[in-house]
C-alpha cells in the first residue's frame, strides 16, 4: 500500500473532493457477452463519451476495461476528430506506464474500446487521503517521466496531464491515460508551435495563457511539475477560488513549497515550474537530476505496434478510421459519389459468411443475364450488357462473427440495383439486439 501522510500545513486542498475509483457497481449490462469475446461485468464509471465497464476476455480470463461509445453521440456531438485522434495516438504507444489499447470492436450503434484494466483506480483518490512521502512521490514521478519521455520521443504531446488522468494497476504502478487532447508532432512542420487552448486550469502552462503558440513538450513538463508538487504537498501550487487569480499566479510563477520539501526537490520543482519555456528543464535534464536519479531504472518499452480490428491476422481488417467514418446506421446510406454522379458507395454490417454474400451477388447477377468479370474469396464484380451496370462487392472481416460489406456500383439506366440486387442482399444486414443495442 502507498505510504500516505496527512499533514497539509493548513493549506487549502482541492483533493478532498470525492473521486470515483475502480470499485465495481452494478450495471444493467452485467454478464452480457460482447462478440462472444468479452464478458461484460460491472460499471466502472461514466464520462462525456459513454460508459466504462469491467470485462473479462472469455478465452484468457484477462481483465479489461471496455469503453462503450454511442456512434450517435460521436457524430451528432461533432466528436469524430476527437475520437480519431485518441485512437491514432494510442495505436502507436506501448509502454509499461501508459494504459494500453488492446483492440476496437463495433456494432451497428456502438464502438467498443478494449483497454488495459487499471485495477488500482485513480491516483487522485489515493492523494485524497493525504500527501505522499518524498520517496513515494519520487517513485511515481519517475514512472510519469518515463511515460512522458516515451511519448515525446514519438512526437506525441499529451497536453492534459493531471492527477485525474493517472491510474494505478494491481501493483500500484502508475499508468497514464486519456489522450483525447493530445497533439502529434508528425502532423506539424519543424519548429511549428501549437495554438490550441486546452488543458485543465490548475495545470495549464503560462505560455498557453499568453496565446502566442507553445511547445507541446514544454507544457507537458510544466504539468508534470504541478503533479510532482501535489505528490509532495497534498495541494495545488496555484490555487484560488477565483479562476483569473489562479491564472495570474501561474503567469507570474507564484508558488511556495511546504516546509517539509527537501532542498533537492525544491530545486527540481523550481526548474519544472519555470515560467520561461525556453529555460524550463527538459526530460533528459530531469533524468539526470540528482533527486530524480535516486533509485531510478529506465523501463523498456515494447516495439511499436498496430491495433487490429478482428482476430484473424491472416485476413484483411478494417482500421479504426474506417469504422468511425461509417454512417452509424449501416443501412445502405450513400456515402460517396464521384463527380460524374455515376458511382455510389454503400456499406453495411452482416453476420453472414463472406462466401454466402459473394455467392448471392453472383446468383442475382447471372439470373439477370450479367457476367461475373472478377471473383475472389472476398470480392466479386459483375457487369450488365453493354456496360450499363457495374457492381463491385467487397467483404472485409471485422470480427470472428461480423463482416463489413462494401458496395460500389455504376448504373446508367434503369433501377437494376434497387429492384434486383438490394432486396436480396438486404436480408444479410445485421440487426443489433440484446442488452447492448441502446444508443
UniProtKB/TrEMBL annotation:
Superkingdom per UniProt: Eukaryota
Enzyme class: transferase
Residues binding ATP, per UniProt: 71
Listed InterPro entries: Kinase-like_dom_sf (IPR011009), NAF/FISL_domain (IPR018451), NAF_dom (IPR004041), Prot_kinase_dom (IPR000719), Protein_kinase_ATP_BS (IPR017441), Ser/Thr_kinase_AS (IPR008271)
Domain Protein kinase: 38-292
CDD domains (UniProt xref): CIPK_C (cd12195)
Protein role: CIPK serine-threonine protein kinases interact with CBL proteins. Binding of a CBL protein to the regulatory NAF domain of CIPK protein lead to the activation of the kinase in a calcium-dependent manner.
Coiled-coil regions listed: none
Name of the protein in question: non-specific serine/threonine protein kinase
SUPFAM superfamilies: Protein kinase-like (PK-like)
E.C. number(s) listed in UniProt: 2.7.11.1
Native species: Capsicum annuum (Capsicum pepper)
Cofactors, names only: Mn(2+)
Recorded family membership: Belongs to the protein kinase superfamily. CAMK Ser/Thr protein kinase family. SNF1 subfamily.
Chain ranges of the NAF domain: 313-337
Amino acid at each position: 500500500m502507498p505510504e500516505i501522510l496527512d499533514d497539509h500545513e493548513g493549506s487549502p486542498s482541492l483533493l478532498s473532493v470525492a473521486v470515483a475509483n475502480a470499485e465495481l457497481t452494478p450495471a444493467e449490462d452485467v454478464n452480457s457477452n460482447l462478440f462472444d469475446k468479452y464478458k461484460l461485468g460491472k460499471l466502472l464509471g461514466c464520462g462525456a463519451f459513454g460508459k466504462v465497464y469491467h470485462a473479462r476476455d472469455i478465452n484468457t480470463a484477462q481483465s479489461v476495461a471496455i469503453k462503450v461509445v454511442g456512434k450517435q453521440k460521436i457524430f451528432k456531438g461533432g466528436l469524430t476528430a476527437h475520437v480519431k485522434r485518441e485512437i491514432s495516438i494510442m495505436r502507436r504507444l506501448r509502454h509499461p506506464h501508459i494504459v494500453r489499447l488492446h483492440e476496437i470492436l463495433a456494432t451497428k450503434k456502438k464502438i467498443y474500446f478494449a483497454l488495459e484494466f487499471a485495477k488500482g483506480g485513480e491516483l487522485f483518490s489515493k492523494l485524497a487521503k493525504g500527501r505522499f512521502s518524498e520517496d513515494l512521490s519520487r517513485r511515481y514521478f519517475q514512472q510519469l517521466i518515463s511515460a512522458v519521455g516515451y511519448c515525446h520521443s514519438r512526437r506525441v504531446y499529451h497536453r492534459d496531464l493531471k492527477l485525474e488522468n493517472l491510474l494505478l494497476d494491481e501493483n500500484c504502478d502508475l499508468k497514464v491515460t486519456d489522450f483525447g487532447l493530445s497533439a502529434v508532432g508528425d502532423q506539424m512542420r519543424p519548429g511549428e508551435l501549437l495554438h490550441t487552448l486546452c488543458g485543465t486550469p490548475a495545470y495549464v502552462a503560462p505560455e498557453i495563457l499568453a496565446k502566442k503558440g507553445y511547445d507541446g513538450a514544454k507544457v507537458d513538463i510544466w504539468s508534470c511539475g504541478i503533479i510532482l508538487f501535489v505528490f509532495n504537498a497534498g495541494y495545488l501550487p496555484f490555487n484560488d477560488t477565483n479562476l483569473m487569480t489562479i491564472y495570474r499566479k501561474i503567469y507570474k510563477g507564484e508558488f511556495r513549497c511546504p516546509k517539509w520539501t527537501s532542498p533537492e526537490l525544491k530545486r527540481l520543482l523550481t526548474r519544472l515550474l519555470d515560467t520561461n519555456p525556453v529555460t524550463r528543464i527538459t526530460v533528459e535534464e530531469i533524468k539526470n537530476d540528482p533527486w530524480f536519479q535516486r533509485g531510478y531504472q529506465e523501463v523498456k518499452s515494447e516495439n511499436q505496434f498496430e491495433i487490429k480490428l478482428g482476430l484473424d491476422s491472416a485476413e484483411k481488417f478494417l482500421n479504426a478510421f474506417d469504422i468511425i467514418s461509417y454512417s452509424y446506421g449501416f443501412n445502405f446510406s450513400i456515402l460517396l459519389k464521384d463527380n460524374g454522379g455515376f458511382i455510389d458507395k454503400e456499406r453495411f454490417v452482416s453476420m453472414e459468411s463472406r462466401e454466402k454474400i459473394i455467392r448471392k451477388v453472383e446468383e442475382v447477377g447471372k439470373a439477370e443475364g450479367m457476367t461475373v468479370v472478377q471473383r475472389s474469396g472476398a470480392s466479386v464484380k459483375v457487369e450488365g450488357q453493354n456496360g450499363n451496370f457495374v457492381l463491385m462487392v467487397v467483404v472485409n472481416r471485422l470480427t470472428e462473427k461480423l463482416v463489413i460489406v462494401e458496395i460500389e456500383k455504376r448504373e446508367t439506366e434503369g433501377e437494376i440495383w434497387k429492384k434486383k440486387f438490394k432486396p436480396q442482399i438486404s436480408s444479410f444486414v445485421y440487426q443489433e439486439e440484446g442488452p447492448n443495442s441502446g444508443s
